[in-house]
Structures are given as structure tokens and as C-alpha cells.
Amino acid sequence: MIQKANGKVISVNESLVGAQIIDGAVMNGEVAYVKIEDGKRLKAEVIDVKSGGLVFLQVFEDTQWMQVGDKVAFTGLPLSVKLGPGILGSVTDGLQNPLYELGKMDWFMERGLEVDPLDTRKKWHFTPKVEPGDTVTAGSVLGSVPEKLFEHKIFVPFSLEGEHIVLDIVKEGNYTIEEPIVTIKDKSGRTEQLKMVFDWPVKKAMPFYKRAVPTKSMPTGIRILDSLFPIAYGGTACCPGPFGAGKTVLQHSLAKHSQADVVIMAACGERAGEAVEVFKDFPELIDPRTGKSLMDRTYIVGNTSSMPVAAREASVYMATTVGEYYRKQGLNVLILADSTSRWAQALRETSGRKEEIPGPEAFPMYISTLISAFYDRAGVELLPDNSSGSLSIIGTVSPAGGNFDEPVTQATLLSTGAFWGLSRNLSDARKYPAIDRIDSTSKYPSLLEVEEVAYLLELLRDGKAIASNIILMGEKGIPDEIYIRYQKAELVDTVFLQQNSFHEVDGVTKPERLRQMFDIVKEIIEAPIVLHGKEKIRSHFNFLRQAFLDWNYLSMNSESYENQKSKLLKMNKMMDYAPENV
Amino acid sequence: MLLKTYENIDSIGRAILTIKADGVHNKELAEVIYPNGQRAFAQVIALEGDQVTLQLFGGGFGVSTNCKIRFLGKPMQVGFSDDMLGRIYSGNGQPVDGGPELLSDMIRVAGPSINPVKRLIPKEMIRTGVPMIDVFNTLVRSQKIPIFAKAGEPYNRLLANIATQTDADIIIIGGVGLKYDEYHYFKQRIEDAGSQNRTIMFIHTHREAIVEGLMVPDLALAVAERFALQGKNVFVLLSDMTQWSDYLRQVANAQDQIPANQGYPGDLYSQLASRYEKAADIEGAGSLTILGVTTMDDVTHPVPDNTGYITEGQFYMKDGYLELFGSLSRLKQQVNDRTRADHRSIMNAMARLLSEAEERVKAQKFGSVKDDYSLRLLEYRKTFQKELMDPFKYLELEDALDLCWNILARHFRKEEVGLSSKLLDVYWPESTILKIVQDTSHE
Questions:
Q1: How far is B106 from chain A (nearest CA, A)?
Q2: Would you say A537 and A484 are in contact if contact means Cβ atoms under 8 Å apart?
């Protein structure tokens, strides 16, 4: 056991505080509290241990009114997250304080407030899975409780070392997370009581039981992603873009429609309003896949842009740790980290105050290592009971000036499997989702066949090339058949790749519908066109586009859906028609 | 309470002073006392052992080593009272309109952010009478949104227009680095509109030290927040936040901070965010809306760039017009489905066609635009600019929407506009005559 150290403040520079150790040993990464004049205790983390008993702390709260000489109490424990039933559906700050509980105390995020991360009074219905005499190790399942949508397994803490014998376990019944449920004994005869919750240090990746490669695509309901640039269960994606290109809407759409069991939103240094939209809207929305509230599968960590900067990093790691925990439950978890640039900037601020030699754009040199280690925590895990779980991470990046050639974007690109580049040109043209059709990539399997993806991409590239020729030479300067190819590419973009996120039907496309849509798109692309003259060709495609868009807004399996579909197919074959006849 | 006074000043810079002292608190307010008895404010910004670093509100010029520093035992505060309405204050919270100092509650400045659970989802449209805002980028109560414009654009006029034409209970003007005539303009506009009794001004002009300018948004927002908590709908105008960021850069530089981009400190984003994030629609209380100004030459410059990531959109002003491209209201989706059934669709259709027209503008430079459709697009673009983009022409939302349909019908056929048949049936003005442009090409 480490003896907890004591110290006192010797310097204060915004969130970076220097402290002198008076007694005891100090660990890099441990949590400490600085007690200020009014008795408030400010949470901090040791980020550097220097010679002569000097340590640097990053304080997670405003350091106003701190003085040289204020007492520092070290805890000997690293920054940890509490894992157990009750996380789903909750909203916490970057240090796992539930915001609704804090809201009962004050309008503002006053410093020095700490609340139990999980409800300690709620009774969970526990069903034991082991008996006295059984041998357990770290990660063994002791029993389960129902949480929201699924059975939440109660584990032996992952940090427990060696084999233990179960001495005693409670009967099936209702217990709080504070009550001991199991007593175990190790080889030396030392006994220990376990509860339904345990701590895990946020910065330590949970070891995989067995790791597998992500191969199954995760439907997101967003057509351009599912068809051209998919993400897989356990995969990672990097989503950089200038402001106003649609990152937020895309994030919300992913949070709502992705076919994941658990969605964790890490609002890191972004607008508070966006997190509010999610946690105030989601409880009202029904997830069609479960018939329950969308909030039931959601956990939100909000360290928004005006909250203390030092806690941004903690919020990202906390979300990831919770994600790893639910992966151990055999679930498919999706983390939306918005935005990793704000995390990097927080590191830059601290690094600057520590007077470290800066790297490119003043970011610390080690930024790329941190980023790749973060994305490495995603993945598919094969579990002891032969089931599997996955953790996917979609990280948004907010590059300065929208320029992807900056350290955070570049480091993220190297660490992720899919790249969704958001483009201001597309968003200005209202072509949403404004994901670049040409430059984006994904190494994960699509919901379409490989050759179908190639087929679409080729058409889109042709379309782009012809468009620039049209600018140079005018519509009349290019032959009809080339112009037809251009119109086809435009049509595919408009009716298939563009999507109205705010529309109930068009906002989400299920895999079956995506397939039907693609088949019709393909039929249109392959239909022979016998029209002459740009005016006629354009008019033909205008009518097709109109009919297709109308179809996109009709819900599947309705009569009007089928009618519109056959109308569309009929129009595709007609060349010389008066619109009234259709 | 005994206030400690120290005389052993170590160093004096442009905006920073260091002194040896003990028992000093971080962010404590202090006074610089000159040998002739004059006083100026300063604030503790860093502590190291007995070395205290102070930020000088009045700047370092004229401060001498025989000045004294008196620590005031309190953090930066600002007075708050209803009697402040109609008054004008400086960046250190002192009245500058010649009126009396008020007895008022002292409230904290730059306090913590509001708990997100106390925020409401913004749902109330603010009608401005500016078509480019009401139709295309609707302003919503509690929004934080700046005007992006080159210096010299009439952004302050638009700011004053919006503030006085809307239904704000309280208007708070935070002027940072204003030219004297800009200050005078705001004052005049408020008086002309008869809005003095609901307006408070915090003004920093080029005459005053930059640290005072740095304080202006904090003072304005602290007072505004208090009014909002009392149930008022408050509008805060901040002009100009690029100046403010420049002051921040100067002060960071004076403190030997490692610069990030273009000399700005690495925490520019956080600094801007902690101000703009004060905007909120507060549960069980009022609201705080922020309209800012960010002067810029190029949107990728660090100040507009960081601002864009923080604010809920921006209004982009160019050549006196409000541009469609480059402008954005992130909150418009919260309200524009409840205005009129065609609002969203026509907004999108107009934008899409305008973007198509922009493509043709490029092509026109190569002399390759000759076909009828392209020529009509170019005509449409001209009409759009002339009839919709002037921010100083007042038009109610419904009239503006009708005008949009009318413009479409003047330039396009029904099937060209990409609107659903359902809307076309209701709104398409059949009587409007399509203007066919002479096709100048020879095929």
C-alpha cells in the first residue's frame, strides 16, 4: 500500500499548479485534491514529478483564489471511472459527476462539487451465476442484473490478481451497488468482499480477452456511408471538417440511427447546446429496433467548451473506458468523440504552461502517440463465453482553417480505418451529408458488393471530371453521350448520396431499402438514352430526379411507396413523354 | 479587513508587473497606487513562491518602481442593479457617462458555465425582418452568432438594427476597441430607437488600455446573465471580437506564452468559448442571446476559424450584402419547420439553384455559358442579390417566402426547382411568367 502523500501549493498558473511534497510517495497520474481558503476541494491529477519533491498538477477546476501554501492531499489512486449498472441513460460531466444531480445543487457548474457517479440507492435485481466453492478470476461473471435493454453482467473486477474461491454469495434479490454481494478468498486465505461496481483507471486500456479484426459493417442509416465509406463493428473512423460542414448533424444522425447496442457520446470541448439537444430529445424518441427510448442505449459525457479545459482529456478517456466495459458485456458499442481536436488543444495548453518544447503548431510532440493509442482501444473482442463484443470509435476532428494537413488530422488518419472528409464546397451547395465523394475512404466492407462500390465511384469521378469540362467549354461544347454520363452522376449524387437528415423517412435508410434504391439507381445508369440535345436530356433527368426524391420521402412497405417505385421505373424507360401522362 | 500593501516591484512590462508578496490569491484584484495618489486596477494572474504576476488594466506605461501595490482581497466583480439601464460603463466597470456611481450588488465576473441540464433546447424564432436571416438562416432565441465581415462593412449598423427591431427586454452593448465614431453611432441608434431605458453599454475605445478592452465581454456577460436569471430576454452585442482576440494575443505574448497559430495563444478557442457559451435559454428563467462581430479578411484566419467552431453559425457580410454562402444558422432547424410549410424546402431549393448559378459564374469567365438554362441561372442570381440580400430592407418572413416563390417562377420551370410536387401544387405562382433568355449559342 502506498502511503498517501501530502503537499502544499508553490505555484499557480491557470490550471497548472506546482506542489511541494511534504511527506509520502507520489505516483505520476494519481489524483490529488487542493484545499482552498473557502474549504472547497479542487480535484487535480499529477502530470509530472520533478526532482526535489516537486510535482505538477493539472487542476480540473478553476483555480481562482488558490494561494501559495494551500494544502494538497494526494489519494494514491489514479483517475478512475466507476463501472457497474446504472451508466446507461445517464449524463455526466468529464469526471463522471451526474449533471442532473449537480443541477439539483446549483444552476452553475460550481467548482468543488462531487456527486456519486452511480445511483447508490437504486435496488437492482441480482441473479447469481456462481456458487460457494466455485473458482473465479478477474472478469468472471458473478451474476447479472437487468439494466434498461439487456442483462448487465456483474464481473469480478478486472484488476483482481490470481484465482479466488467463492466463499459466499447473496441469494437472488434486490441489492444496491453499495451492498457486498460476494465474498471471495485467495490462495493465501485473504478474503475480500465484492460489490456490483468497481473502479478502473481511465487511461489504462482494458485488456482484450481475445482480439479479432473488424469485418462486419455496421449499418448507420446514412446512405453515403453504408454504401461507399462504411464503418465496421469494432472499426474506427476519422471525420474532419471545417466548421459548418455538417459534423454535428452527422454525429446526431449516427447517434440516432446506427445499429449499435450502446452509443456513448463524448462531447469534448464542444458546444453545450449540442449535448443538450441529445439528452433532452433522446428520452422522447423511440428506437424502432428496441421499441424503447433512444436514451436507454445512450450515455453522454459532457465536458463542453466552457467547462474547465483540464477535464477534457479525462472525458475522452472516461467514455472509452465505459465503452470497453460494455464491450465486455458482449455488446456492440459506438463512441462518438466530438471533438478530438479540443482534447489535443487541452494538451497543448497544458504543455505550453509546462514550457515543453512545442511540436508543429505548438502541439506537444507526443500528440500522435496519444491519438493512435486512443483509437487502438477500439476493436472486436471475443469473450470467454464465445460471444463477442465490439467498440467502434468515430472521432471528429476540427482542423484549424479546415486544413487537413495539420498534426491532429494527420495523426488521426494514420490511426483509423475510415476517413470521412467533410467539404465546405459540398455544404455550401447544400449537398448533405457533405462527405467528400472522391477523397473519402474506408477499408471496411460495404453493404453493397465490392464491384458495385467501384461502379459508383467510377461514375462519380467521371461526373466530376465532366463538370469541370463543362465549366471550360460550356454544355454545348461536349457531346450528348458525355453529357448523359454527367447527368447520371449528378442524379446519383442527388437522389442516392444526398440525404435529408431532418426528415423522418429520408433521414434513415435501412439496409433493405438501400439495396432497393441501389438496384434502381443502377437500372437508371444502365438504361439506354436515345435523347438528343442538352435541353431534352436535362429535362428527362429533372423528371427522374423529381420522381426519385418523392419516392425517398415515402415510407417503405406503403402502397404509395410501391406505386412511386413503379412510376419511377416506367419513367426511366420513357424518353419522349409529356409529364402529364406519367 | 486589513489590506496588504507592497512596494518592492520587480519588473514592469507593457501589461504585466511582477512583485514579491505573500498571502496573495490567484485572480485577486489589486490597485496600483502611483506616487501622486492616482490609482489603477490590476489582477493577479500567476503565483510562483512569493513572486506574483499582475495584469495591469491601465497598461504598464507610467508605472514606476516606487508605485505601491495594494491587494484588495476580492476577485474581479461588477456592480449589478436595475438602475444601470441607460448607463455607460468602461472596461473596468466605472461609469463614463458623467452620471453618479451606483450603489449596487457586486456580482462575480467570468463565473462557471451553467449546468447543461439547466439549458432548454432553443425553440423560439427571433424575427428580424431581414430576409437573409429570417428565411435562410433564422435567428433563434439564446443563439450565439457573429457577423463575419471585413473591417469597414456596415456590421455595426446591422447589429444595431437587429437589436432594436427585435423584442429583447434588455440590450447590453459590449464595445471592444471601438473607434470613437462607432461608439457614438451605437449611442445614437439606441437613443433614436428610444431604447435607452433597456440598454446598458460597456465601452472600450482605442483611447483606453487594452486590458480594459479584454474585460468588456466578461462584464457585459456577467450583467446580462444576471438579468437572464431574473427572467429577462437579453441581447448582448459584442463588437469586435477580433480586436478582443488581438488584445489577448498581446497579453499572452507579454507573458512569454508559447504561441500556437499566427501568434495567438493556444487557448484562444477556450477563451472565446467561455464567453460565447454564456448564451443560453435557461430553464425557468430568461435567455441570453449573443450577436457578435468578427472582423476578418479570410475565414481561415485563427479568430473567425475558432469562432466558427464555437458559435452557432455566422452571418457573412460582404459588400454590404448578407451572403448566402458562408452564412449559417445552426439553430434554424429548431424553428423553421414551424413557421410555414414551405419554409425549409424553398430555402433549400433557392440555395441549391444559387449554388448551381455560382458554378456558371466561373464558367462565364471562360465565355462558355450560352445555353438558355445557364443564362436563366445567372439572371436568377442577379435577382436574388437585388431583391433578397440587402440586410437593410425590411421584409416580414411570410412576404419574403412569397417573394422567393415569385423569383423562382420568374426564372425556372416547375420541374427545374427540385421541390416536391405537393408543395408545388400549393405554392407555385402559376400566373408568373417565365422569362426565357435568348439562347446565344449556335449548335
A1: 17
A2: yes
Longest dimension (CA), chain A: 91
The answer to whether A68 contacts B49, with C-beta atoms less than 8 Å apart, is: yes
Q: What is the spatial distance between Cα A244 and Cα B313, in angstroms, rounded to a whole number?
A: 7
**B313: which 3 cell numbers?**
453559425
Cell readout for B221 is 456577460
DSSP B101: P
> Nearest-CA neighbor of A565 among A551, A553, A554?
A551
Residue with the three cell numbers 475565414: B299
Task: Give the Cβ contact number of residue B392 at 10 Å.
Answer: 13
In this prediction, residue B15 carries a pLDDT of 87
Mutation for A interface: B27, B55, B117, most A CBs within 10 A: B117
Q: How far apart are the first and last CA of chain B?
A: 92
A91 chain-B contacts, CB cut-off 8 A: 116-117
Average pLDDT, chain A: 93
User: With an 8 Å Cβ cutoff, are B113 and A307 in contact?
Assistant: yes
Quick: pLDDT tens for A12-63. Answer: 999 999 999 999 999 999 999 999 999 999 999 999 999 999 999 999 999 9
Helix (H, G, I), strand (E, B) or coil at B9: strand
CB-based contact B196:B86 (threshold 8 Å): yes
Q: Given CA atoms B162, B165, B171, B172 in this order, what sign does their dihedral have?
A: positive
Write the pLDDT tens digit of every residue in B310-361.
Answer: 999 999 999 999 999 889 999 999 999 999 999 999 998 999 899 889 988 8
B24, B337, B370 member nearest A67 (Cβ): B24
Among B122, B269, B330, the residue with its CB nearest the CB of A345 is B269
pLDDT tens-digit map of A203-246? 999 999 999 999 999 999 999 999 999 999 999 999 999 998 99
CA A531 to chain centre: 48
Q: 3-state class of A168 per DSSP?
A: strand
Task: Please tell me chain B's helix, strand, coil percentages from 3-state DSSP, rounded to the nearest 5.
Answer: 35, 25, 40
DSSP assigned state of B158: H
Residue of B nearest to A247 (CA): B309
Cα–Cα dist A571/A559, whole Å: 18
Beta strand spans in B76-212 (E): 77-80, 88-89, 105-108, 125-126, 139-140, 144-149, 170-178, 199-205
Which residues of chain A make contact with B29, given a CB cutoff of 8 A? none
Q: Picking from A6-15, A284-293, B285-294, B379-388, which range would have the lowest pLDDT averaged per residue? A: A284-293
Cβ separation of B369 and A474 shorter than 8 Å? yes
Q: Pick the closest to residue A545 from A505, A502, A492, A508 (CA basis).
A: A492
Q: Does B267 sit within 8 Å of A309, measured CB to CB?
A: yes
Cis-peptide, bond into residue A445, ω within 30° of zero: no
- Three cell numbers, residue A460: 462519380
DSSP class of residue B259?
B
Q: Are A309 and B368 an interchain contact pair (Cβ–Cβ within 8 Å)?
A: no
The beta strand positions in A105-197, using DSSP E, are: 124-128, 135-136, 141-147, 150-155, 164-169, 173-175, 182-186, 191-194
Q: How far is CA A510 from CA A248, A288, B40, B136, in A?
A: 21, 11, 66, 31
Neighbours of B430 (CB within 10 A): 7
Q: Nearest by CB to A546, from B117, B280, B418: name it.
A: B418
Question: What is the spatial distance between Cα A188 and Cα A178, in angstroms, rounded to a whole number?
Answer: 26
Q: Taking CA atoms, what residue in B is nearest to A402?
A: B300
User: What residues form DSSP beta bridges with A98?
Assistant: A92
Residue A342 burial (10 A CB sphere; 0-12, 13-18, 19+): buried
A467 close to A478: Cβ distance less than 8 angstroms: no
Q: Does the pLDDT of residue B364 top 90, yes or no?
A: no
Q: How far is CA B206 from CA B158, B175, B243, B247, in A?
A: 22, 10, 10, 11
Please calculate the CA angle B255-B256-B261 and round it to the nearest 5 degrees.
110
CA A162 to chain centre: 34
